[in-house]
Write a structure and sequence with these properties.
By secondary structure, the protein is α/β, with parallel strands linked by helices. It contains twelve helices and nine strands. Helix content is 47%, strand content 13%. The protein has a six-stranded parallel beta sheet, sandwiched between helices. The structure holds nicotinamide-adenine-dinucleotide (NAD).
Length: 300
């Protein structure tokens, strides 16, 4: 018999993730506060659940893909109280990007009730969710992460066990903080070259074969016209929005504060994205994060 998944949060990410589980043969019950998201999920083969309780009743897996930690804590503990409603044998997998402290709280409240909980934030964006190529960074007991593979493998290409509860969130914010730093550094270097008469394509091809090579330069060049099929070549539409990078940098700063870690480059990246987000009165939060290139030359 097909195993049942209760899926909460069928937005830009959760919608295609749930659709991939349907394709893999799971019976997926969809719950979202936005009717249009549920309607799309039903078109993709999910069954609409009228209430949180109806969604989780007897379900083998509970998966959530929610906007923030307060919402996740309300869903699992303080509001709908899913942890008190789920089948005791169910495995809870929260894929939302939230503070590690929120994930740890959901994990420890699960433990008190003998419910297994894994935090599994993702990298790969909407395109990765659609293509089932996401990277999952998991926190929780090794056996629980192993058990989560049964569903995660149908939504992603790489599944990592980062450590105990909350470790998936820490891995995710370390990665995205570094991504912001090398994106800004790449944009800055490209602008310096252009301001001094270099062609950005030529400069990029030199740095690609030199020690400045990095993922932003190689896969996601922020300078318009250097690469095809990246947001810089379509007026920074699509991709990974500035507001999502601001969220992840904010989570990184919160974690650094809690652990007394020094993150001067991360703090600068956080400040530059905040400055850029409303530069000159424009709302840049919906543009791709590589549009930070525009901070260095208002003419780009
Ligand atoms: P989204 O806003 O498109 O989707 C979130 C969905 O959750 C919405 O449909 C919303 O109605 C629903 N929701 C809110 N409260 C709910 C509740 N109590 N019960 C059920 N559903 C509820 O956001 P998204 O882009 O899909 O992002 C989801 C998560 O994935 C975020 O934590 C984000 O940081 C992370 N993430 C996003 C991307 C990306 O590129 N979009 C990439 C990696 C990680």
């Amino acid at each position: 018999m097909a195993k049942t998944v209760a899926f909460f949060g069928l937005g830009n990410m959760g919608g295609p993730m749930a659709a991939n589980l349907v394709k893999a043969g799971f019976q997926v019950r969809a719950f979202d506060l936005v009717p249009a998201s549920v309607q799309q999920a039903v078109k993709d083969g999910c069954v609409a659940a009228a209430t949180e309780k109806a969604a989780v009743e007897g379900a083998d897996f509970i998966i959530s893909m929610l906007p923030d930690g307060a919402i996740a804590e309300r869903l699992y503990i303080d509001g709908a109280g899913l942890l008190d409603l789920v089948n005791p044998a169910a495995l809870v997998i929260d894929c939302s990007t939230i503070a590690a402290a929120s994930s740890r709280r959901i994990g420890s409240e699960g433990k008190k009730r003998n419910i297994r909980v894994v935090d599994a934030p993702v990298s790969g964006g909407v395109a990765g969710a659609q293509a089932a190529t996401l990277a999952f960074m998991c926190g929780g007991a090794a056996a629980d992460v192993e058990a989560a593979r049964e569903v995660l493998k149908h939504m992603g290409a790489n599944i990592f066990h980062a450590g105990e509860s909350g470790a998936g969130q820490i891995a995710k914010i370390c990665n995205n903080m570094l991504l912001a730093i090398h994106m800004i550094g790449t944009a800055e270097a490209l602008q310096l070259g252009v301001d001094n008469g270099l062609d950005p394509k030529t400069l990029s091809s030199i740095m690609l074969k030199s020690s400045g090579c990095n993922w932003s330069l190689e896969k996601y060049n922020p300078y318009p016209g250097v690469m095809d099929n990246v947001p810089a070549s379509r007026a920074y539409q699509g991709g990974f929005m500035v507001k999502l990078m601001q969220k992840d940098l904010g989570l990184a700063m919160g974690a650094a504060l809690a652990s007394h870690s020094s993150t001067p480059m991360g703090a600068l990246a956080n400040n530059l994205y905040n400055l850029y987000s409303h530069l000159g009165g424009d709302d840049n939060t919906g543009l791709d994060f590589s549009s930070i290139q525009r901070l260095f030359d208002a003419g780009v």
